[in-house]
């Protein structure tokens, strides 16, 4: 399997059976542009079809695991139907492709973990966060519904009460707190993050692949059952991209101020 077509994701074979997928750039916390979003959706199909890979590690190369979507992409979606439809399809595929990927996925999250990258971080089969990682689902701060993965997995991982609290208020969650509430598999000091991810990946790569993959497939039926809730949330998120709250949320981010949303809702 060649990964030469990927220009935003850096893909490296660490050792036999393990592939490393790195987002971002060293020393930076860059936002995900349209190309990055498309690659994050496609990569799991290619990992699934890669006969040489048994485990994939997803991590960030820069100052954090992942930033949110670029403001230019958000702006394009707000007034371009074709862009909105394209991102809807990619966001749908990203979630279902990682759920249906037969290979085991390990995430290693440090710093900010936001946006499409966070989708992979929390849907990974084993999610590892640095103790001081900053997990944020910022959809409602932007003025759109939390749609890109939250409805399908957060209530299952940490319960409905915690899911509603963090998703409605856009409260930041540390890696330590995320482990405590069950949102991630475990947390470690950042200095040990990659070593721990590699340790877990090696154990999984040495295991019975049929047993591991069939166990993953069976457990992920819990997520597949939540597919209708996810599909609804994603559609409502896309609907919000055409509304006035999104425009105010986008302006407030660019102007670095709190948003002033209209208190009246049309429904």
Largest sheet: 6 strands, mixed
Distance between the termini: 50 Å
Q: Helix amount, in percent?
A: 40-55%
At the fourth CATH level, what is the homologous superfamily?
2-enoyl-CoA Hydratase, Chain A, domain 1
What form results from the Cα inertia axes? Answer: globular
> Radius of gyration over alpha carbons?
18 Å
Let me know the average pLDDT.
95
Find the CATH topology. 2-enoyl-CoA Hydratase, Chain A, domain 1
Give the percentage of residues in beta strands: 15-25%
**So, CATH architecture?**
Alpha-Beta Complex
How does this model look, in words?
Helix 1 packs parallel to helix 3 and helix 6 crosses helix 7. This protein has a single domain, classed as 2-enoyl-CoA Hydratase, Chain A, domain 1. The strands form two sheets. It has a six-stranded mixed β-sheet, sandwiched between helices. Strands 5-7-8 form a three-stranded mixed β-sheet. The mean pLDDT is about 95. The chain has about 270 residues and is of the alpha/beta class. It is built from 13 helices and nine strands.
Task: Give a topology summary.
Blueprint: E1 10-15, E2 17-23, H1 34-48, E3 53-60, H2 71-79, H3 81-100, E4 104-109, E5 112-113, H4 115-123, E6 126-130, E7 134-135, H5 139-142, H6 150-158, H7 160-169, E8 173-174, H8 175-181, E9 186-188, H9 193-206, H10 209-219, H11 221-225, H12 227-240, H13 244-254
Parallel strand pairs: 2-3, 3-4, 4-6, 5-7, 6-9
Antiparallel strand pairs: 1-2, 7-8
């Amino acid at each position: 399997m060649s990964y030469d077509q990927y220009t935003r994701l850096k893909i490296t074979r660490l050792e036999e059976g393990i592939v490393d997928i790195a987002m971002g750039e060293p020393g930076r916390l860059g936002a995900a542009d349209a190309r990055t979003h498309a690659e994050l959706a496609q990569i799991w199909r290619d990992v699934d079809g890669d006969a040489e890979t048994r485990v994939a590690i997803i991590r960030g190369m820069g100052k954090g695991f992942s930033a949110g979507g670029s403001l230019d992409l958000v702006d394009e979606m707000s007034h371009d139907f074709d862009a909105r439809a394209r991102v809807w399809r990619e966001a749908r595929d990203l979630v279902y492709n990682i759920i249906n990927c037969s290979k085991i996925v390990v995430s290693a999250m440090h710093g900010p973990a936001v946006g499409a990258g966070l989708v992979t971080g929390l849907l990974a089969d084993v999610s590892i966060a640095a103790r001081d990682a900053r997990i944020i689902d910022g959809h409602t701060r932007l003025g759109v519904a939390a749609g890109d993965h939250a409805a399908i997995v957060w209530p299952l991982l940490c319960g409905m009460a915690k899911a509603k609290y963090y998703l409605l208020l856009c409260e930041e969650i540390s890696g330590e707190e995320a482990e405590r509430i069950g949102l991630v598999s475990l947390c470690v000091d950042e200095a040990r993050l990659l070593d721990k991810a590699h340790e877990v990946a090696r154990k999984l790569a040495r295991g019975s692949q049929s047993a591991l993959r069939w166990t993953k497939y069976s457990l992920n039926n819990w997520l597949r059952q939540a597919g209708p809730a996810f599909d609804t949330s994603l559609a409502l998120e896309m609907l919000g991209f055409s509304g006035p709250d999104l425009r105010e949320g986008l302006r407030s981010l660019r102007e670095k101020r709190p948003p002033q949303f209209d208190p009246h809702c049309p429904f």
